[in-house]
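Next comes this protein:
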Amino acid sequence: MENPERKTGYTGPWNVEDSLDLYGVNAWGNGYFGINAAGHAIVRPDWTEGREIDLHEVVTGLAARDLSTPVVVRFSDILRHRLTRLRDAFATAIAENEYQSRYCAVFPIKVNQQRLVVEEIYGYGREFGFGLEVGSKPELLAVMAMSEGSSDRLIVCNGFKDDSYIEAVILATKLGRTIIPVIENFSELALILKHAKKYDVRPRLGVRVKLASEGAGRWRESSGEKSKFGLFVTEILDLVDVLKEHGLEDCLQLVHCHPGSQLQDIRRVKDAVTELAHVYAELKQMGAGLQYIDIGGGLGVDYDGSRTNYESSMNYTLAEYASDVVYRIANVCNARGIDHPIIVSESGRAIAAHHSLLICDVLGSSQLDRFRVTETDEQMVREKKEIPQPVQDLLDAYRSVSERRLVECYHDALQAREQALQMFSVGYLGLEARGLVERLYWATCAKIRDLCRKLDSVPEELESLETILSDIYFCNLSIFQSLPDSWAIDQLFPIMPVHRLDERPTRTGVLADITCDSDGKIDHFVSLRETKRSLELHDLKPDEPYYIAFFLVGAYQETLGDLHNLFGDTHVVHIKLHDEGGWWIEETVKGDSAAEVLRYMQYDVERLVPQFARDCERAVREGRITLPESQAMRRFYEAELAGYTYLEP
């Protein structure tokens, strides 16, 4: 097997181009990210050379403003650029296919429900006529107010709906909103008819179709006949009959489907769109007043940059996606002789993922290859007559390591270590000897690994040594709060250091967070060839911070995060390019304090302080502390309640 780790652990020339290649930045960065001559990660929010934001400069600038890491950094200009690219891709496809209607994106706010993000997307989408999608009553209530003065911009309402949800939709219609509730199950129709009659409104209606086409990838079961939402064709035909009975068939204006999320295979997109287009055409010819065809979400994000049919990638481009969608809808409509509908998509992940990244500091590391066999260790083996044979075998294996005997020495070390540990378990090996076994074994593995790095191909038995000997870098973050998809569904996110990228990384490691949960780690990393089990990193320097960035985290991560160990929301900053060069902070959202997360869990913080104060008074009365010490303790406790939930410098 070719050695994928040959770049790590060797001296010699190293430059920024090497880091770009090592971390695959040009592949997954999609033009938005790069590395400058100083070896710092940079952001190009609109792809323009020279209009760059230095991430290390951002981190140090935030620290000067008393905002320590971890911090989520959002780049508003990337949101604008993503919306523009989406518009341009469909505009080109519409022109090329002589399509006789238009395209409208609606942003599903479930993807990132943060007010600032939704407001920015809605504001940037105004010139394109883009709208919003909601999936719950709270989301709808927010959008009803946010869409003030925008009666022409589309609002699509998905999700299960109760009586008050439907009533809110009808009221929004009466206020002049272009709002379409998508019927997910047949019972919702009766509620719509009830409130339409009550408020004397002819509503716009949509219906979600259960596709026969199956999805693909991690969310393959979210589409198809076993999908959670949607009506079977038989139910849709019944729905049309009911609408005709009430003289409302012209109110059915939209058909919708959900082909799946993060569709990595363009064939699934083609199948879903073609099937939905035929449903649209048939219903249109039956007298439905259809104007919109909503192809749902699914437009992927190439998290690993491989452009392959892999769960964390996609084997198509945005231009290809738009072209296939427009061509297939046009083809079906042309064959039936019906007008082209307005194409709607709910591509939330593709809009939001790139604009946000997470930066944390590294607290320290654990290194298995730090163990060394000293002259004292060898002397201990020589001088002790009763030294067990497995310990002697380990020393022999350590001394015998050479390029010709790598596999043999590794097998010898494995066997000797296993025998020694068995002896310790039954009381025939002392603790001091156990420590010697530990040092000998890991020192032997490190020698073998170092020799393997010089080989063009690594023997199969030794392929796992890099992973086994990889360091653990302890990162000041909670994966459960800030990267929940990494923990829950093994989602890959691009990760690399923020700085020192003009230096050769000399370590490989996995990342662990500061929660007391063994699942709080990341041990799979993006690669153009195959998923890596460790990440190339730099040696930590005393008294010098080391920062790591997690990219493409703008979709779902913030709203899915939990409060495991009561680590709350991180600080968030919105950064924009300045017209005259450089960057500026548009808005800052302070992260949760300890008091805030305690309140989330129903702790009465106002009671905690007096309780602690009484304990301090008791300690003073009993002579265990002085009054000044008591006052200092109270001030400390109150300050910590008001402080950040993460570790601070």
Observations:
- The radius of gyration is 30 Å.
- Residues 605-642 form one domain.
- DSSP finds 23 helices and 21 strands in the chain.
- Residues 110 and 135 are 7 Å apart (CA to CA).
